[in-house]
């Protein structure tokens, strides 16, 4: 009964003085789990008050029971979902904390309606809700960084490290004091470790008088132009419009502007899969409570060495695979298999410069046979051109990989040779 309310959201409990890093469980496939719908209904029913008086307790307990009932309805499809288990435990804790009985009315939560002149209509925001004005009023302009994830999947970190990773299941891309981003990667082909992003969750944490906590979620064939609670901005606070979603192309391209932290996020659906790109100030990137956990976040530290594709192993496997093809039956190939020549020709249609985006395109066509991966590489580079602050670093040519102790990486590898090494890469991923 302290009067301080916590709400379980995707593994987070709000209201804690220290921000708890997300812990992710890797679901094998995107599930029909609807826990975020339960969360948003509970938020809508209980928002508008920062503390609970005695007269509010019955209404809060009713909302909690409705929340619990909602989680039970979706339990069968949420068995492996961390957000679901976090919500169930959070509900139990809140029941005890507010002396709520599990038996009682469970009326549907009241959904807030926007009235004329509500925060959705506000155009002016406090200065604190505009990053460049508030944080850098008397200093130099902030240094912006970029991170992107696309394709099979390829990662460009905030430090312009470029990696090709396996990372199947759920992984954290970003986790700092202001937002969390999690992606789920699923197999592209049956029996293959080639993966692509099938689900994306972004949590914008509540910030001063600017924005309420907001959750955005996209999945294959579902790219909403709103947060999970149906809103398109930061909620009911005065600076709500410092966080806004804009739909650029219906079902294919959305942009989220978070002016209060100087951040722009672009999410696309290309073919069946999602791409992610962000522009963020270094100050925001490095704003974390637990610096020892920074290595968990892909955009900051890259993929773990065990999850990066080892091109040394690929080269050593070339001879083995070649002998296997000569001695035995042909290995399975993607449905629309590309040869090295046809893959490079197709990628040159959209990516004339043979940089790492071009090479990633070739890699993806050889491993998946899906021409949409060529478009994913193309749009990823278009997003870099829009979001990266250093136009001299748009093209990257040298692959980078963090090797475990005792391993050595070849230096000075020519891009053409690097592409050639990818030709048999799908054989190693099948």
Automatic annotation (TrEMBL):
GO terms for biological process: BMP signaling pathway; positive regulation of macromolecule metabolic process; regulation of primary metabolic process. GO terms for molecular function: coreceptor activity. Keywords: Autocatalytic cleavage, Cell membrane, Disulfide bond, Glycoprotein, GPI-anchor, Lipoprotein, Membrane, Signal. Gene3D superfamilies: Mog1/PsbP, alpha/beta/alpha sandwich. GO terms for cellular component: plasma membrane; side of membrane. It is found in: Cell membrane. Residues 102-125 are annotated as: Disordered. InterPro entries: RGM, RGM_C, RGM_N. It comes from the Eukaryota. Pfam families: RGM_C, RGM_N. It is a lipid-anchor; GPI-anchor. Residues 33-102 form the Repulsive guidance molecule N-terminal domain. Residues 143-389 form the Repulsive guidance molecule C-terminal domain. Belongs to the repulsive guidance molecule (RGM) family. PANTHER family: REPULSIVE GUIDANCE MOLECULE A, RGM DOMAIN FAMILY MEMBER DRAG-1. This is RGMA protein. It comes from Loxia curvirostra (Red crossbill).
